[in-house]
Amino acid sequence: MARPYTARVRTLQIQHDHTNLLGAFRVPFHEAGEVDVWRTFADPAPESLAPYDAVVLMGGVAMPDEDDRYPWIPEEVRLLREGLERELPMLGVCFGGQILARAAGAAVGPSPSEQGWFDIGLLPEGEQDPLLGPLGAGYHAFEWHHYGFEMPPGSVPLARNAAANQAYRVGPAAWGLQFHIEVDRPTVEWWMSVGEWNLDEHDVDKKHMRAETERRADANADAAAALARRFVAIAREHRSA
Asked: Are the C-beta atoms of 7 and 235 separated by less than 8 Å?
């Protein structure tokens, strides 16, 4: 018997620097179809999101209101507003979640720092959410941020802990996350190496961070891959509709 046809999903990956890559998202997105990469720091902005079925926005060292330092930020906001208007499936992680929140009309700015593994504080709405719900209450994810977002107007708050808003859904298919669900063990080790100065600046216990990474990273990578597959399925359904 022939296998049923599965529609391919064309994704735009928005990469904001050299260190924030797809991580554990990589295999699910590439298995689903073509992945184009817009490196904001090196490439011209796409004219439109019209060719794409989904957008995934990664983290970055920029802050989402630093238009004067990073001229690509207003271009990205323009594209994300187009995506929101079209109800295009979009998934933003850390900086990606912050700039998506800005595009959706929310305030962004400095927040208490989180560096390490923290309970994301999944809310009842989050437990019912098709993307985040399977993570389950008490989920600890990797965080590395000094900025945060307010909830966009009309959005559904999905997760919040004592430090910051952690997740929202705006419209039917756009999610912003403060936490780095995409990390695997090599990613954390790489970030700890290149960002050691930042950890020291904030008095982070690196030994504890490594121990928590040893305990949590592999399961987190599995959860991230499963989340990416759920997102791809949502994008495929949106395309079919």
From this structure: no
CA dihedral of residues 217, 223, 226, 227 (deg, nearest 10): -110
Percent of the chain with pLDDT over 70: 98
Is pTM beyond 0.90? Reply is: yes
84, 170 contact by CB (below 8 A): yes
At 46 the pLDDT is: 97
Give me the residues paired with residue 22 across strands.
none
Place of tokens 């990273």: 217
Q: Reduce the DSSP state of residue 12 to 3 states and report it.
A: strand
Burial 225-241 (b: 16+ CB within 10 A, else e): bebbbbbbbbbbebbee
DSSP 132: T
Calculated CA dihedral for residues 122, 171, 50, 71, nearest 10 degrees:
-70
The answer to whether residues 219 and 181 touch, using CB atoms and an 8 Å cutoff, is no
